[in-house]
Write a structure and sequence with these properties.
Helix content: 55-70%
Number of domains: 2
Radius of gyration: 21 Å
Distance between the termini: 70 Å
Shape: elongated
Largest sheet: 3 strands, antiparallel
Structural class: mainly alpha
Number of strands: 3
Order of helices and strands: EHEHEHHHHH
């Protein structure tokens, strides 16, 4: 007879692995749906490319949900503890850092830089990852300058 699996958690791979470890250590069998494909090519599965589903056998669903009940469903509690302006600047910095990874999003990074600096000035202090965000902006400037230099040389 084939086992029927039910999803008890859906979210980032890092959280899913922690939840999987908790369940496995308590004797509940687990399975990460599409785990290998998410590592090899996460975008092949479409939207929510970095989210995975943690599944358990149907007969263990209630037990697994009780064990996972300690985790908050979302980050609302964390966000509520942070003042809104700081949260906005923090998210903007995170977006800048991620966008700086790709060469074709360098202009987007530079568009986000001015609102980021305004937000930091309004805060009156530097956010936690300020240095990394500045490095990402600098990297995007260098990337854009390099691309423009290549385009101008090829256009001659």
């Amino acid at each position: 007879m084939q086992r029927r699996w039910t999803t008890v958690f859906s979210g980032p791979m890092s959280e899913a692995l922690v939840c999987q470890g908790l369940l496995d250590s308590n004797g509940v069998a687990t399975h990460l749906l599409d785990q290998n494909i998410k590592v090899i090519d996460p975008f092949i599965t479409g939207a929510n490319a970095f989210d995975v589903q943690l599944q358990v056998p149907a007969e263990d669903v209630q037990n697994a949900k009780e064990m996972l009940a300690w985790r908050p469903d979302d980050d609302r509690e964390i966000v509520a503890a942070i003042e809104p302006a700081e949260e906005r600047v923090r998210r903007l910095g995170k977006r800048i850092r991620w966008a700086s990874i790709q060469m074709f999003t360098a202009p987007y990074v530079l568009c986000l830089a001015l609102p980021y600096f305004r937000g930091v000035k309004q805060l009156g202090r530097r956010p936690e990852d300020y240095a990394w965000t500045i490095a990402a902006i600098g990297f995007s400037l260098v990337t854009l300058a390099t691309i423009l230099g290549i385009v101008l040389r090829v256009g001659r």
